[in-house]
Amino acid sequence: MTYLSIGLRALLTLAFVAAGFAKLSGVDMMVATFDAIGVGQWFRYLAGIIEVGGAILLWIPRRQALAAAVLGATMVGAVLAHMFILGPSAVPAIILGLICAAVLYLHRDQIQETLGRSA
């Protein structure tokens, strides 16, 4: 299970660091996407910070479940944005969300600890 977790976290890290830096650096496609969503460019920066921060958090011991939950929540938002506003295809966001769910499952023992409850 350790190798599976490492592999999935590496995939998520590559995807979210790339997407996060694209948002933070103002890649034209990202600017246009957030214009289409209509929430303002501040939200693009927030999404980029969350994505890069979540990718970093995936590698901090005992924080993988938290990272997967945060990144998975961003993918729920991405799927909804694609379904109701942007169109084309939500498949990449769905796949990333499923990988986040797998990492969360693999590190489910951390959930009670993260919520501040003793097991």
Automatic annotation (TrEMBL):
Superkingdom of origin organism: Bacteria
Compartments it resides in: Membrane
UniProt KW Transmembrane keyword: yes
InterPro entries, per database record: DoxX
Entry keywords, A to Z: Membrane, Transmembrane, Transmembrane helix
Membrane topology: Multi-pass membrane protein
Residues annotated as transmembrane: 42-60, 65-84, 90-107
One GO cellular component term noted in the UniProt record for this chain: membrane
Protein name: DoxX-like family protein
Protein's organism: Poseidonocella pacifica
Lineage: Bacteria, Pseudomonadati, Pseudomonadota, Alphaproteobacteria, Rhodobacterales
